[in-house]
Amino acid sequence: MAFTTKGSGQTGDFAYDLFFRKDTSKGNPQLEVMIWGANNSYPLGTLTTSNAITSDGVTYDLWEGNNDAAGYYVYTFIPHGTAGNSNALPAKGNVNVDVKAFLTRLQDLRASDGRYSNALYLQVVEGGFEVTGGMGTVSLSGSIAAK
């Protein structure tokens, strides 16, 4: 998935966003897993695993915490050491990752917590830009293949 940005003072993250449930109902999500590409903001929660996984030449840290406003727990993989950096978002970039590898790693790291399990039902997959500040436009292109 690729992105381009134009504007000033933009803050946020470009990410894959996966929502899960413990059952097949179409109710609200019960868990969220995010995989950030470019970012200059903070994920929810705290850093729990540094250097959790490397994919496509990028090493990711794992952050986690409760999204009180939405009512579910969130795991966020972000490029190592980039949380809250003051760098401008790049004008363009991409995130090409094997999402399944991240979910397998999350299972390895957090199955004992009782929140994430490979037995959960994937409810929604999104890719996009989560804006937290600034002005401008964002263009996205790409596809998501399920195997």
From TrEMBL:
InterPro entries for this protein: ConA-like_dom_sf, GH11/12, GH12
Entry superkingdom: Bacteria
Keyword Hydrolase: yes
Gene3D superfamilies: 2.60.120.180
GO biological process, one term: polysaccharide catabolic process
One Gene Ontology molecular-function label: cellulase activity
Keyword set, alphabetical order: Carbohydrate metabolism, Glycosidase, Hydrolase, Polysaccharide degradation
Ranges annotated as spanning the membrane: none
Xref: Pfam families: Glyco_hydro_12 (PF01670)
Record-stated family: Belongs to the glycosyl hydrolase 12 (cellulase H) family.
Descriptive protein name: Cellulase
